[in-house]
Specification:
Number of domains: 5
Largest sheet: 10 strands, mixed
Number of helices: 41
Strand content: 15-25%
Distance between the termini: 61 Å
Helix content: 40-55%
Structural class: alpha+beta
Length: 1143
């Protein structure tokens, strides 16, 4: 094919000649036929020369909405409509061409896919040509998605045409534009596009996914090389990856047996898999595929006369192939196009140090397979490549594996909503940062918005690309994500790349929270940094006394502040890498440094020289290759953050404190405390972080470090941060330690449905403004999915908004005297009514009994022996503790057996025990009965418990609450001070005759009165499990009064409005103002009697639901009288409760 350059580009001479021929034809033509016939004759040999099929259908009959029509020329999925010269230049003529082409495309789509024409039409293109001008039509699901191909320049006209006959969407119109080399070049690319495989996620997955041999063979090869690695450089690359991913995945990597087994099965790995190395192998394969793909895309740019990466691979020897790969991995291939940082600080190049014929063969197969795809897809149809890398990764790693590791990708529509909410309009002068950019979803959308802004405001391409490279920035701690985001950044820039003389992609591999640390001191300094470093370090300080530290898997690197500017640190790191490669001495390196930077302070030179010496030593030990570039990236938050951002946006990591790696907890502990997020210290801080989420710290650190005063931050975070008591209190201070306040602008609550693939989390969109205090109420938009609607990951924002109802609520602290208390969220008028109910109750609630080994203490009674002893069987399979032996037919004394009330036993107005608890707790001493007493009075029970002694001593709660330190100095140790079978949360209150119980975890707040139940023919009080909360009471009427009040609509709405379904704990009675029962108060007695009636109805085998609803209505009215709520306000609360019942 002589018409193609070695890079896969169409020879511009061909496009130029064809354009000239078409223009000459137009000069001679008087009608459509005199254009169509000679242009088709001129086009045919060109298509043959380019290897594009010339099998066109002429005058193809198509049934349109307007009747029967005939398309002039149909090339597969491309339709060309020829017109008389000059017709497209007139508005009326252009309108007619648009209507004809859109009708033809719609008709063809309905013919191919009668039930889903909008799916078929996505793969089509319409071309209008009158010999003088040309225009294009492509399908878009909405105007917001209309920009998905940009054939000429930013000055090209873009319109959107809504087409009848399609269930949704319409056509993007590009043009008209003159017939010239550029527009005809795009005509030829468009026709070739329909001959090759499009760069679409599912198509790539068919060739490169786990079901294909290419992936299985390559990943097996990588994995076994990692297992057998005795190469220091390979181990060094893996160690640094392990350190970074230990932060990203935390403890999940240590608990990933199931994920490892599934991943191993997927890729045919034999034997027990090593999850970390297998994951590293999969990541390596994915990254290599991205690098090759990016290389192919970059060769399409204007002026490229280099052979594409895949063009010569097939015939290259193994040695030649390795050189090509080395050139790719070193970034040299991209530097040919003035892209200076696409690859740097990359751990995934390790396979070059394990190179053999097997690796060479696998890489050759990957490169050859890529040649069947059309790289111009990214420019002709960027919508097809939307989420390309994101979805490819999802194909390579099964959902369960990704979810076990906590990996969820942000749907485009969710990111688009946040960008709209925060107010970013695409102005390229506005600075935007995504500090956890992942694969680059937010960055790509911001670039798309900047393109639209440039269209509206006639911004020049060269000016736009420079602004984007400066002002749209991404950080990520995941090196895999950084490469994906950089690739997506290039894809998003598209043809703008050719307008930039030098490209440094503003996506950096760094930690947005733990940035390099600056120390300031005069002269000699001795310092201790407990959050990051143990021990003392002594350094000679530069004149200004300022130094910066970066911690790595190979220890700490120290830099003088004098070089921590973007241009200087780039020069220093480039010289470090170059000098190590060419074996310069320290003196030679420093001389080069002086030449580049000018005269430096002696201490500055000494510090940089120390860094050089460290890297030289690493190189001598086989551990060099990435350090200089890696270190440069680590300083990105410092030099990029020197000019704060107007907007910081993104989806920060949602990682529970307990799931963080131990080292990351230790390193960030000081920051948690400095920002006021919690005040625990030492071991208590490490163990007691509770339900705190890393997103809290991430939000505070980003507001502090990157947002300008008055700037805005918008994040997709867990909605629980606004609702959790205790864990979220520090977050809801909305103040950076003792420093700047920040204002909550608005929250979108999406907890009614799950935006993320397969995730059951509670999602919220929140926007803040730095420098202003939060004022209540805060606008709170509650998203509720419409009946029979489902939200797809591939929906656009307009499609999602059509499937949901957005309710205008407001948020304010449930306790007005505690601004950081959990938020109350409801309709504004309902909140007014609820304020009459909110307050401290005269009652106290308790959590139920806790065993930490339910399978030992929870029993089923199976009979009774002749001695009157209970015969029982333990429920060994309940609870989280594994390895509990089942003991069947064990004889036990009945005195220690009590009816057990579990969460599933409690319903609205009904509580019925379904198991028994072995209660060996002394309620006065608050620990287990003395062993001597057990031996004397309950030997059978003690004998049973002794079977589990070892396991019971290891219970987490037993070690936490029943151990104490004894001894001194080196002899200090932990010893138990209570019997090994001791329980928790059991006191005299537990044995109260009546209890009002509710579940800690329930979609709808549900309370019931529990009394006594039979054990061996004796009535004994029920004991609730720790997943039940209860109010202990001595009087049955009082119990029913309390139950009726907290089950009423106002109380239920309060609980639902501030609490999370999984955390409806004892705090309920801290927020529902329930006065003490007064037997003389008729309102109180009325509520008690109504509750008794409700319980009686609920206990029937076939409850009269209509009558029960009437009783509940009466309870709501009686409760409203108790709290002095008017009928109108009660209606507001009932309506608001109905809103929440739909959740």
């Amino acid at each position: 094919m002589t018409g193609m350059t070695r890079s896969g580009k169409i020879d511009p001479a061909i496009s130029k000649k064809l354009a000239r021929d078409i223009r000459e034809i137009a000069k001679r033509a008087h009608n459509e036929e005199e254009v169509r016939i000679p242009v088709e004759l001129a086009l045919k040999p060109v298509l043959t020369q380019l290897g594009i099929s010339t099998q066109a259908n002429y005058e193809q009959k198509l049934t349109t909405l307007q009747g029967t029509g005939y398309a002039d020329a149909v090339y597969g999925f491309g339709v060309i409509e020829y017109e008389r010269p000059g017709k497209i230049a007139t508005p009326a003529g252009r309108k007619e061409v648009i209507e004809q082409l859109s009708s033809y495309l719609t008709s063809k789509a309905r013919e191919l896919a009668p039930t889903k024409p909008h799916e078929a039409v996505k793969k089509m293109i319409g071309i209008g040509l009158d010999g003088e001008q040309i225009m294009y039509l492509r399908y878009a699901s909405s105007p917001n998605r209309a920009r998905f191909f940009q054939p000429i320049s930013l000055e090209t006209q873009l319109d959107f045409f809504k087409q009848k006959g399609l269930p949704r969407g319409g056509f993007q119109i590009v043009g008209p534009m003159p017939v010239d080399e550029a527009s005809i070049d795009w005509l030829l690319y468009s026709l070739r596009f329909f001959q090759r495989r499009a760069l679409e996620p599912h198509a790539l997955a068919e060739v490169f996914g786990p079901e294909a041999n290419i992936a299985s063979n390559a990943i097996n090869s990588f994995y076994h090389k990692l297992l057998a690695a005795d190469n220091r450089r390979v181990e060094m690359f893996f160690a640094q990856w392990d350190m970074i991913f230990g932060v990203i995945y935390g403890q999940e990597l240590e608990r990933g047996d199931a994920a490892a087994a599934e991943l191993a099965k997927l890729y045919g790995i034999v034997g027990k898999p090593d999850l970390k190395r297998l994951l590293f192998a999969v990541h390596t394969y994915y990254v290599l595929l991205m690098k090759m793909l990016a290389a192919e895309l970059i060769f399409l740019q204007e002026g490229s006369w280099f052979a594409s990466f895949t063009a010569e691979v097939e015939t290259a020897s193994d040695a030649e192939l390795k050189n090509k790969i080395l050139h790719l991995e070193n970034g040299g291939l991209f530097k040919q196009f003035n892209i200076v940082n696409f690859l740097e600080g990359d751990f995934f190049r390790w396979y070059l140090d394990a190179w053999d014929a097997d690796i060479a063969q696998n890489l050759r197969h990957i490169a050859i397979a890529l040649q069947q795809f059309e790289p111009a897809t990214t420019t002709i149809d960027p919508n097809a490549t939307r989420d390309l890398l994101k979805k490819l990764y999802q194909y390579l790693l099964p959902r369960r594996v990704r979810h076990d590791l906590g990996e969820y990708y942000t749907p485009d529509w969710l990111a688009e909503r946040l960008i709209r909410q925060i107010g970013y309009d695409g102005n390229p002068n506005t600075r935007v940062l995504d500090p956890s950019c992942g694969s680059g979803t937010f960055l790509a959308l911001c670039i798309r918005k900047a393109f639209d802004y440039a269209d509206r405001n006639l911004v020049r391409p060269d000016e736009l690309v420079q602004k984007l490279l400066t002002n749209v920035v991404g950080f990520d701690l995941n090196p895999l994500a950084v490469i994906a985001a950089r690739t997506n950044f290039l894809l998003s820039l598209g043809t703008l790349i050719r307008h930039a003389p030098r490209i440094e992609i503003p996506v950096y591999f760094c930690d947005s929270i733990l940035t390099p640390i600056e120390f300031v001191h005069e002269g000699q300094i001795e310092f201790v940094t407990p959050a990051l470093h143990e021990g003392k370090v002594e350094l000679e300080m530069p004149t200004n006394g300022r130094i910066w530290h970066v911690d790595t898997s190979e220890g700490r690197f120290t830099f003088p502040a004098a070089v921590i500017e973007q241009e200087k640190i780039e020069i220093v790191c480039a010289l470090l890498e170059e000098s190590v490669q060419v074996s310069r001495t320290r003196a030679q390196f420093l001389e080069k440094l002086r030449t580049a930077l000018g005269r430096l302070d002696n201490a500055v030179e000494k510090l940089i020289g120390n860094v050089f010496d460290r890297i030289v030593r690493l190189n001598a030990n086989g551990k060099n290759g990435i350090w200089a570039r890696f270190l440069k990236n680590q300083f990105a938050p410092v030099f990029v953050g020197k000019k704060p951002f107007d907007f910081v946006i993104g989806n920060p990591p949602w990682v529970n404190w307990q799931s963080l790696s131990d080292s990351y907890r230790d390193k960030t502990l000081q920051l948690w405390q400095n920002y006021g997020l919690f005040s625990l210290t030492g071991q208590a801080a490490r163990l007691g972080g509770g339900k705190k989420d890393l997103a809290m710290l991430f939000t505070y650190a980003c507001l502090d470090n990157y947002v300008k005063d008055g700037g805005r931050l918008g994040f997709i975070i867990t909605q629980t941060l606004f609702k959790t008591k205790g864990a979220g209190d520090g977050f809801r201070r909305f103040q950076l330690g003792d420093g700047a306040h920040f204002k909550v602008f608005q929250v979108d609550d999406l907890s009614d449905f799950q935006p993320f693939e397969g995730a059951t989390n509670r999602t919220a969109i929140v926007t803040f403004q730095k420098g202003r205090p939060t004022k209540y109420p805060v606008p709170y938009l509650y998203w509720q999915k419409k009946a029979k609607q489902s939200v797809s990951l591939d929906d656009d924002l307009d499609e999602v908004l059509a499937k949901i109802t957005v309710k205008q609520w407001e948020a304010q602290p449930v306790n007005p005297d505690k601004p950081n208390s959990p938020w109350l969220t409801a309709r504004p008028k309902a909140v007014i009514a609820l304020r009459k109910v909110i307050g401290q109750s005269d009652y106290r609630a308790y959590a139920g009994s806790c065993t930490w080994a339910n399978g030992v203490y929870w029993l089923e009674i199976t009979g009774k022996n002749n001695a009157g002893e209970i015969i029982a069987r333990n429920l060994s399979d309940v609870g989280k503790l594994e390895g509990i032996e089942q003991v069947d037919g064990v004889a036990l004394e009945s005195d220690l057996l009590y009816p057990l009330l579990r969460g599933r036993d409690v319903g609205r107005w009904k509580a019925e025990s379904s198991a028994f608890l072995l209660n060996v707790q002394d309620t006065e001493k608050r620990c287990g009965y003395d062993e001597d007493l057990m031996k004397d009075k309950f030997p059978l029970t003690l004998g049973y418990l002794l079977k589990f002694e070892s396991l019971l001593r290891k219970r987490s709660g037993f070690r936490k609450f029943f151990y104490k330190l004894v001894g001194k100095g080196k002899k200090k140790k932990l010893e138990p001070f209570a019997p090994f079978y001791s329980l928790y949360n059991i006191g005299e209150y537990t044995l109260a005759p009546y209890k009002v119980c509710w579940r800690e975890q329930a979609t709808f707040f549900t309370a019931s009165v529990a009394g006594s139940s039979k054990v061996a023919d004796k009535n004994k009080v029920v004991i609730p499990d720790h997943k039940l909360m209860f109010v202990p009471l001595d009087n049955e009427l009082e119990a029913h009064y309390v139950c009726a009040a907290i089950n009423s609509a106002p109380s239920v709405l309060i609980v639902k409005s501030y609490a999370i379904e999984t955390q409806t704990s004892t705090h309920v009675l801290e927020n529902v103002r329930l006065p003490k029962f007064d037997v003389e108060n008729q309102q109180h007695l009325r509520l008690a009697e109504l509750s008794k009636t409700a319980h009686a109805l609920a206990a029937e085998s076939k409850p009269d639901t209509k009558r029960l609803e009437e009783i509940e209505t009466d309870i709501d009215k009686a409760a409203a009288e108790l709290w002095d709520i008017t009928d109108t306000c009660l209606l507001y609360t009932s309506d608001a409760a109905d809103d929440l019942l739909c959740v």
